[in-house]
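WARN  no MSA supplied for this record, continuing single-sequence
INFO  ligand: NAP
INFO  echoing inputs
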Amino acid sequence: MLGLSERGKKRLAYGFWRFTENQVDEAIAMIALVRENGIDHLDTADVYGGASGFGGAEKLLGAVRAKAPRLLDGAVIATKAGCEPGAPYNSSPAYLKAACEASLKRLNMSRIDLFYIHRPDLLAHPADVAGALDDLVTAGKIASVGVSNYTVAEVEALTRYLKAPIRAHQIEFSAGHVTPLFDGTLDQAMKKNLAVAAWSPLARGGLGDGGPMELAKVRATLATLAAKFGVPVNALAIAFLSTHPASVTPILGTTNSARARECLDGLKLTLTRRDWYDIVEAACGRRMP
Ligand SMILES: NC(=O)c1ccc[n+]([C@@H]2O[C@H](COP(=O)([O-])OP(=O)(O)OC[C@H]3O[C@@H](n4cnc5c(N)ncnc54)[C@H](OP(=O)(O)O)[C@@H]3O)[C@@H](O)[C@H]2O)c1
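INFO  complex generated
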């Protein structure tokens, strides 16, 4: 159980990209809010931490565990490695194993529930990446393996060598970024039964007032549908993702509790095919053929 969506069960996750190490009280308040509302999957990465630097967001979760241990009972913690400051990517076995050990210490955990390769390292042979991940599973350091921002071919190549199953693929997917609908990513996830976690589900604020020009049509379509349903645009943005048959889990990143509640409401909406395709057509800038 990863706390991610499955067929017939729509879920959300919460991510800590936008938190710094010292925001312990803010993190506790947000985790309490999302957990009360059924979110059990918490996403972080070794590189997250903003101004507090590399490792800051993982240390934050470690501090949350120390200050409010019950809050994380039953929560699934996912983290990522493979982005090396300055490199920019490193999925060599030595780097991944050291990164995992460092994450365990910062998170104050003995085993990571879901360990993602954050971004593909073009200089790493998939057999070597697979060997490192399998070693980490065998050693009990990680429970499950995920990948993030992989192409379809990169998932296939890693699968060829990996003994453990790839459980999840974390991708950019939103009403403002619909590429995964057409590049085979979601089809591959359904074929291989990979959980799909969608990062930046609100297009980093681009779906709200003041978003970029290129998303104007998407914003207008979401606003029309939001008026039809009588809900905020953020709820529509989440409903768009959770309607896809790949059982997508949007990873919330808002630090605003009102916006988080609006997103939670999105899981309750049922879009018609016409509603959903209106958003796709606005995102693509053309009618479906
Ligand atoms: N695997 C990867 O490569 C990768 C990459 C990026 C992110 N992630 C994961 O995905 C999570 C979510 O990503 P995200 O934070 O980019 O998600 P997001 O929900 O698309 O963006 C949230 C950001 O947009 C702002 N925002 C949303 N609606 C707005 C509006 N109407 N007006 C103004 N600002 C608005 C939020 O501000 P407020 O906080 O004020 O609401 C916040 O700064 C991250 O925490 C991380 O766990 C993974």
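Residues 15-18, 43, 148-149, 170, 199-205, 208, 251-256, 259 surround NAP (CB under 6 Å).
INFO  checksum written, moving to next record
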